[in-house]
Design the sequence.
């Protein structure tokens, strides 16, 4: 990935998506900050040499030793942060014992608290001075001096690995994360605390963000760090803001040492630039799989044609499972679906009664086992030839969530054209414009077609989300909860042929908009808290948690 030129190291491909289209933003000293045009990752290019980084870290250590009051303040802040991190790890992991590894442990502040809480602790630290201090402070813990790959830790030894303010210092984050995965036991938990380039402070201060320093080589945001965790073999990812208690002395000293044009607001308790990432090591399949969810109710005219097309469809480098959820149709769709029950690529789920499209999709999501999920209606309004383009950003790591925008979303008034029903077409298209504007306003988006059936995403994006909508309002719920969890949808144009109400369109033109408005109000007021859901799942019993789907029937059909 990297080639040395003089004393700097030039990055040839993105750490996340392997893309090579970089755009210059600004410079730190004589090092450029660039942005990957494909996934949005910010990083230094070229990177400082090893000698330059060592010089920076020696200067930091010397400054801390010379400024004893600041050193005490930093230690106090680290201890407070460590207590908070440990409590949050317990919420996610559900246990308070086992073997814990901290990479970049410093002088052992976090390890001391973890050891007191009952963990068997091991630390890895590059600084020899910090290693010596940590050994003196720990009772029974082990400290390995050097870089992680140099310590040659045995495989599958640890239940938890903790990385605090380190991932942005690593030259090759994906290689680093794969090494951590190697030393974790199956189901082991990884916790990362790191500055986030989409935090409120980074957005407010922009180029004067205090995290833009030479020793910080990569500047992740919530989306692209989750993508690189996914590529490294981690799932069940949750992102939380990282609270820190900063006192006035620390803020004053920090601003004096790293002068910026915008002074940090002086609050006693603030959400700093840090974000916390929680994830688990999982067993990876030999080849990635796409789960296609097909809700089917009274679609006998098109169902067989769709299924034959799906079974013929091949997506490069992906296996495919087709999950059909048949909702006890009255027109022969169930009998047509039963013909595919024995097919190796088909999972057939038979519902005892129709409860709405949203409920059928939720049932299909619970049965899905693939790495990626695509929702496919049985009415042939959408073109299967668009699968490849929709999946490409997910497979390459450029995105985690994709929307297929009908007709590119550019002319909403031609979105639906019903033959001989021009007035009805205008009315329905006005409704599309109204609800699109409402969603963009309420949730600060710029979407063109949020109601498209083609919602394609990594299955792990659903982890610890609760769903309860049953009808077409589930489209709103799925979209908004994925956005609320931190995933930015990428819209790509797809082909679309709208069928009319005479041809079987099931949206109820007066009833459904009321449920949409109710859902939007509820979602705007609701707090999406995946960690709370994980806590409830941990209390319910052992086993790896998965998709959480509420059993509440909020909108019975």
Sequence:
């Amino acid at each position: 990935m990297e080639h040395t030129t003089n004393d700097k190291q030039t990055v040839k491909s993105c750490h996340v998506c392997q893309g090579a289209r970089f755009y210059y933003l600004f410079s730190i000293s004589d090092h450029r900050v660039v942005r990957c045009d494909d996934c949005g990752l910010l990083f230094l290019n070229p990177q400082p040499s090893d000698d330059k980084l060592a010089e920076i870290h020696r200067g930091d250590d010397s400054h801390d030793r010379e400024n004893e009051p600041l050193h005490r303040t930093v230690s106090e802040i680290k201890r407070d942060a460590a207590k908070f991190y440990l409590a949050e790890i317990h919420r996610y992991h559900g246990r308070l014992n086992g073997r814990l590894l901290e990479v970049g442990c410093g002088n052992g502040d976090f390890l001391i608290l973890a050891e007191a809480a009952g963990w068997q602790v091991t630390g890895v630290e590059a600084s020899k001075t910090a290693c010596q201090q940590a050994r003196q402070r720990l009772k029974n813990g082990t400290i390995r001096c050097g870089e992680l790959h140099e310590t040659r830790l045995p495989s599958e030894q640890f239940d938890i690995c903790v990385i605090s303010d380190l991932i942005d210092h690593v030259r090759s984050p994906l290689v680093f994360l794969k090494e951590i995965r190697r030393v974790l036991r199956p189901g082991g938990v990884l916790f990362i605390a790191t500055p986030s380039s989409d935090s409120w402070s980074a957005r407010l201060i922009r180029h004067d963000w205090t995290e833009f320093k030479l020793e910080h080589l990569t500047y992740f945001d919530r989306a692209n760090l989750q993508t690189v965790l996914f590529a490294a073999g981690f799932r069940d990812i949750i992102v939380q803001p990282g609270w820190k208690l900063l006192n006035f002395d620390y803020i004053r000293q920090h601003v004096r040492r790293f002068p910026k044009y915008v002074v940090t607001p002086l609050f006693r308790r603030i959400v700093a630039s840090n974000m916390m990432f929680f994830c688990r090591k999982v067993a990876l399949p030999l080849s990635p799989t796409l789960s296609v969810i097909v809700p089917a109710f009274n679609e006998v005219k098109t169902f067989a044609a769709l299924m034959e097309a799906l079974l013929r469809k091949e997506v490069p480098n992906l296996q495919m499972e087709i999950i059909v959820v048949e909702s006890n149709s009255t027109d022969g769709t169930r009998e047509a679906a039963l013909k595919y029950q024995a097919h190796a690529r088909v999972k057939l789920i038979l519902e005892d009664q129709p409860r709405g499209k949203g409920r059928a999709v939720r049932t299909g999501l619970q049965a899905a086992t693939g790495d990626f999920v695509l929702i496919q209606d049985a009415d042939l309004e959408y073109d299967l030839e668009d699968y490849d383009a929709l999946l490409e950003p997910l497979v390459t790591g450029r995105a985690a969530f994709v929307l297929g925008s009908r007709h590119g979303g550019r002319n909403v008034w031609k979105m639906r054209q019903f033959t001989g029903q021009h007035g009805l077409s205008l009315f329905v298209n006005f409704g599309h414009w109204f609800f699109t504007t409402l969603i963009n306003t309420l949730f600060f988006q710029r979407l063109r077609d949020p109601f498209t059936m083609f919602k394609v995403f990594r299955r792990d994006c659903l982890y610890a989300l609760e769903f309860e909508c049953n009808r077409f309002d589930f489209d709103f719920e799925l979209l908004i909860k994925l956005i609320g969890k931190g995933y930015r949808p990428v819209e790509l144009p797809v082909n679309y042929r709208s069928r009319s109400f005479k041809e079987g369109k099931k949206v109820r033109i007066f009833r459904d908009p009321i449920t949409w408005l109710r859902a939007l109000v509820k979602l705007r007021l609701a707090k999406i808290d995946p960690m709370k859901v994980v806590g409830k799942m941990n209390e319910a019993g052992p086993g790896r948690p998965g998709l959480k789907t509420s059993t509440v029937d909020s909108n019975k059909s």
